[in-house]
Amino acid sequence: MKTTAVFSALAILAATPAAAQDGDLLDDLDPQGIGQADVEEVAVEGDNDGPLRGTVTDDSAWQDLGIAIASFATNRDVDTPANESGTAALGFELANVVFNDLRFNGLFRPVGPAALPRPAYAEITDPEWNTWRGRSAEMLVHGYVRANDDGRLTVGCYLYDVALQSELVREGWVVQPGEWRRAAHRCADLVYSRLSGEDPFFDSRIAYIAETGPKDNRIKRLAIMDSDGANHRFITNGQSTALTPRYSPDYQRIAYLSYTDGNPRIYVYDIGSGRQTLVTESSNPTFAPRWSPDGRYILYSMAVAGNTDIYRVPATGGTPERLTDSPSIEVGGSYSPDGSRIVFESDQSGSQQCYVMDANGSNQRRISFFGGRCATPEWSPRGDQIAFTRIAGNFNIAVMNPQGRNMRVLTDAWHDEAPTWAPNGRIIQFFRTERGSGDTAIYQVDLTGENERRLRTPVGASDPAWGPVLP
Q1: How far apart are CA 167 and CA 152, in angstroms?
Q2: pTM for this structure?
Q3: CATH of domain 204-469
Q4: 152-181 confidence digits (pLDDT tens)
Q5: What residues does the TolB N-terminal domain cover (predicted)?
Q6: I need a surface site. Which of 19, 44, 258, 461 has the fewest CB within 10 A?
Q7: DSSP 83
Q8: Max CA pair span of the chain
């Protein structure tokens, strides 16, 4: 006998667009800020048998875990702005996004909706167990999509253990039609976190530099997209070159470098309002702005009289504080998650290597001693690893621990650089430059180095910056 239960529905509502406030921003920019506007409750049928038994604890077990992700059902197939073919077609697309999220993270062995029977609406809370056992599915993802009278969509997501014939977890969301992919990413996050015990990361966004034009005269614009490459949009119009974006820890802002009138400036772009603030302006070469973990400061490098050092400035602008002071070149900088240390690159040993120092610039010590050079270091959100560009003939993405030990190279191409971490510290994105053409594209790889994929972008792409999980 089924019992009626209640689960929370997160309303994902697009904020009112705000006009851009700078000449370099697109005039028709819609920042589409996402807010946790309200929480609703939706009554659904189903059992919840408590905690998962036999939770997987290592990568080898995860990779053997078969997950069937069937097309999301609908109570009635009606028109929706989210899909011109109706809610039934949208149900397939929802399941396909979940499938691709779980397929490319290197932990599971999912089967998507194209290879599975489409369940009826009544089966979402009462699965046909024999159907899924016969397909060797150990876990089953069911879901539904329902068009509401107010134009929004209700999306439900259920995870079942097929062997135990029990529900493990469920959740649902009410979304605007234009935000249906967020519901799918939330479903993938729910499954991923429940089975792995890891923090979610699919419902997040990437800032990057969009590149067009010939190799020797590239137009570089700031752009944003979902973590899987969907919902791309430009932020700047290309009148000035944009470089090295980074999300603030609260996801509300993006710091980036812009060359306006040939002079480098660090701007902070507010995602919700579309406005941006000038943080620094100088005729001196300036590089690689990075946020402090508390969002109060921006770290960057600047060359003065031929000497490049690392500086810190309040995120709202103000007087910079110089953190390094040596005749060598110090570039970049990435804070440890607790804000106590900074990893950076320097040639003070005679070649480009990675160093760690205290947040005030003291106690500098080299950590890279593995041959070749070390560049663009980025501290993991977990604090246990540092990703970097290893230069030893080719440019490749590698990781090491904060002491410089246990170095592993994850990619094997001609020119990979500029790693950025997923919010949970399990996936790394970077950009790859093709030999000869100079074309650039964003790729991602997991920590095994075995699951690499290219993210689709409408134009060339470089300098990715993975933002936090969306609120």
Answers
A1: 27
A2: 0.85
A3: 2.120.10.30
A4: 999 999 999 999 999 999 999 999 999 999
A5: 81-167
A6: 19
A7: B
A8: 78
Is 60 exceeded by the pLDDT of residue 417? yes
Q: Could you tell me the CA-to-CA distances from 175 to 121, 243, 341, 342, 442 in Å, in that order? A: 20, 33, 40, 40, 29
The strand pairing partners of 140, in sequence order, are 68, 160
List the domain boundaries for the chain: 60-196, 204-469
Same topology for domains 60-196 and 204-469, yes or no?
no
Measured CA to CA, the distance from residue 413 to residue 153 in angstroms comes to 43
Tell me the per-residue pLDDT of 51-80, one tens digit each, with 9 for 90 and over.
222 223 334 444 567 999 999 999 999 999
H-type alpha helices, 164-302: 180-196
Q: Go through 271-294 and write b for each residue having 16 or more CB atoms within 10 A of its CB, e for each that does not.
A: bbbbbbbebbeeeeebbbbbbbbe
Cβ(228)–Cβ(221) below 8 Å: no
Instruction: Judge contact between 205 and 224, C-beta under 8 A.
Output: yes
Residue 101: name the closest of 179, 184, 198 by CA: 184
pLDDT at 115 over 90: yes
Among candidates 285, 323, 97, which has minimal Cα distance to 188? 97
Residue ranges of the alpha helices (H) in 283-424?
A: none
If one counts every other C-beta atom within 10 angstroms of the C-beta of residue 102, the result is: 26
Q: How many helices (H) and strands (E) does the chain have?
A: 4, 31
What's the mean per-residue pLDDT of the chain? 86
Domain 60-196 falls under CATH 3.40.50.10070 = yes
Q: What SS3 class is residue 92?
A: helix
Looking at residue 235, its amino acid is: I
Distance CA(140)–CA(102), nearest Å, equals 13
Instruction: Compute the residue count for the chain.
Output: 471
Q: Which two tokens stand for residue 85?
A: 């073919």
Structure tokens at 231: 């919902």
CA distance linking residue 139 with residue 141, whole number of Å: 7
Residue among 396, 340, 343 at smallest CA distance from 373 = 396
CA distance 49 to 143: 18
What is the model's pLDDT at position 64?
Answer: 61
Q: How far is CA 187 from CA 98, 180, 359, 412, in A?
A: 7, 11, 38, 33
The torsion angles phi and psi of 232, rounded to 5 degrees, stand at -70, 145
Sole residue written with tokens 């068009």: 147
75-84's contacts with Cβ under 8 Å and 24+ in sequence apart are 75/121, 75/144, 75/146, 76/147, 78/147, 79/147, 80/147, 80/153, 80/177, 81/151, 81/177, 81/178, 82/153, 82/177, 82/178, 82/180, 83/180
Can you tell me the distance from the alpha carbon of 333 to that of 322, in angstroms, rounded to the nearest whole number? 13
Structure tokens at 338: 């607790």
Q: Find the helix or strand (DSSP H, E) in which 345 lies.
A: strand 341-346
Query: 317: Cβ–Cβ under 8 A, 6 or more apart, which residues?
Result: 277, 278, 279, 280
